[in-house]
Amino acid sequence: MDEIPYTIKAREDSGLYNAKLGIWLFLSSEVMLFGALFSTYIILRIGSVDWPLGSSILHVHLGALNTLILISSSITMIMAWVSLKQKKFDTFRLFQGATILLTLVFLGIKLSEYSAKFHHHLYPSHSTFMAIYFTLTGVHALHILGGLVVNSYNLGPGSKMWKTNPEQFTNRIEISGLYWHFVDLVWLFLFPVLYLT
Amino acid sequence: MSESHSHDLPFWRKYIFSTDHKMIGLQYGLTALCFLLFGFSLMLLMRWELANPETAIPFIGKFLGESFSPMTPDAYNELGAMHGTIMVFLAIVPLVVGAFGNYVVPLQIGAPDMAFPKLNMASYWAYFVGGVVMFASFFIPDGAAKSGWTSYAPLSVLSIGQGQTFWLLGMVFLITSSLLGSINIITTIFQLRAKGLTFMRLPFFVWAQLVTNFLLLLAFPPLEAAGILQLMDRLAHTSFFMPSGLVISGQPLEGYSGGGSVLLWQHLFWFLAHPEVYVLILPAIGIIAEILANNIRKPLWGYYSMVWASIALGFLSFVVWAHHMYLTGMGTAISSFFQATTMIISIPSVIILTCLFISLWGGSIRINTPMLFALAFLPMFGIGGLTGLPLGLSSPDIHLHDTYYVIAHFHYIVAPGTIFAIFAGIYFWFPKVTGRRMNELLGHLHFWPSLFLMNCIFIPMFTQGMMGMSRRLYDGGMQYAHVQGVLNLHGMILYSAIGLAIFQLPFIINLLWSIFKGPKVTSDNPWDATTLEWSTPTPPPHGNFSHEPIVYRGPYEYSVPGASKDFVPQDQEVVK
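Output (structure tokens, whole complex):
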């Protein structure tokens, strides 16, 4: 016995291939990570006497724009996977490239927001609101950065796998997509919690 | 990868950056055993200080630097914090999950390897880096972390030097390692079970690992979050754990906005650290169950109840964390809730222990070194568990909180509990790993003194604790009138601890000697066991099984009526 089974094909009783179960388990741990950070937000806010209105400090329009960008990138991510399922490699490259482009725009806007805050001397040490704002969005941005690296790899050197093992390559896009949707989902919670309330 | 490939691999691919679950398991095991010894020696230094406050340590004191001759309170705190951290995160968890989980689980479920071999390698190296960061922190100016292994804020946030920052960075690596490892083990158990190996045919050890790894998967991320927040507090001067109006040595604290919550750290920390307790004990119970079943020569009594009890333990362990915090002023309503859940969680633990005890009834018990450790585990774990009940109720906890009683209670579970299970497991699986047996005489010479001395160390602590001796005092409580009567017990504990250290030598000698010179086993199944790991060649080659195993029966079919031998392996089709 040398081959590890179910690396590509799903196991009958679980209905999943290994990496798909792996990514779901990883995402469940991510729920706990962000769950703890959101709980921190709640506890700090309940304990505070002068919690500021997010919209009075943060730029709501930029936040809303970033929300739109991330949702769009989720759509292009799905389209990239669908293209592979339809065996259209060129369309895949188009949509995967679009996802990466949207990610870069998101990070650019985030960076400009950060630098505007620093410019006004609003550092994490300024208040617990700024502390949780920078920590939550910072941890989220690190996740975005991780996704960017994976997606770029799959568009660049990783895409050679399409020629040798198209099924596994499609699976790779599927699981990186699952991760990407999760990261978007986190932002969908972050935006109203930090910017709108 | 084919079997012949494994022989062609260069040294560094085969032994250092290996992706074979067995090699990674051994790497975990050896590294963690070194940390176990290191954590133990830190404790010996602390014990000297407690028995002989402010006296230089003879012989070795002068090699340890100025702060150890005699030991300063800061140095004592450093040792205390690092003893706890090293024992929990660098020794016990890597041993029971990293070493035994990695080595034994794929074999017991009939898999060729873990589901993600490269991820497995990454998790070992993340653990290794975490260990190096923790170890290195002893050698930086102002030394290692000294705010207890729990790193309560704001003490930890304000602690001088970079020791605490190193601790947090080290923890991030260790948590990442556990996370990757747990994803791997859970996926392996779900996906790679051999044909016919249904969930209720899994050996109990695999069940214990499954529940344990779910705990690691879901409980560790909140600590990672807490670690990030404390890093922010230390490096970016945020105030997550810094309350308003903090005054240090008569001076109002500057540079922090305040408004944070001190209790938040404790909640986040114990949300991990209570499930962590079950991470320490469940795989140990799994090891013990395997060894007991093998040596009583009959099926485990109540296998189904044990499985359901461990699942219940897993769920309940997420809702008991605040019983570590009765005295923090979080309110009686919350205390009542956590008292209730704490009493409830003792039920599944008792079910498991009772099943193991009843299993002994009517068995034809074989006595060998692993079985001795397994038998000793049962009452020792029992003492540890039962002495926890008063701590789980908030009124007796007012008296017992933060005393040596607490130390004695959880050390009974982890030291003569989990560590005995680890020894049992090493003696038990050693013939499979190396193809050689360990020496029985040295095994006895290791077991009996260890059992006796462990009790000499921890029973006096119950007495000291009930007299109200605090666990945090570097001089052992010399200046307190109410503990004068039990101060002399420190001497007894010190000499027992030194004795315990000496009687680990037979084990170390036995282990090293047997690897090279132990008598070779004549069969792949030297203990006449039933589970799948004994159907592999010895030692198991790359890919583990010479043919695909198919499972036909439950894990513990010993003394089946009508069979010619007193055991029927899981992959044997017909009873004959």
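The domain at 23-242+257-535 of chain B is CATH 1.20.210.10 (Cytochrome C Oxidase; Chain A).
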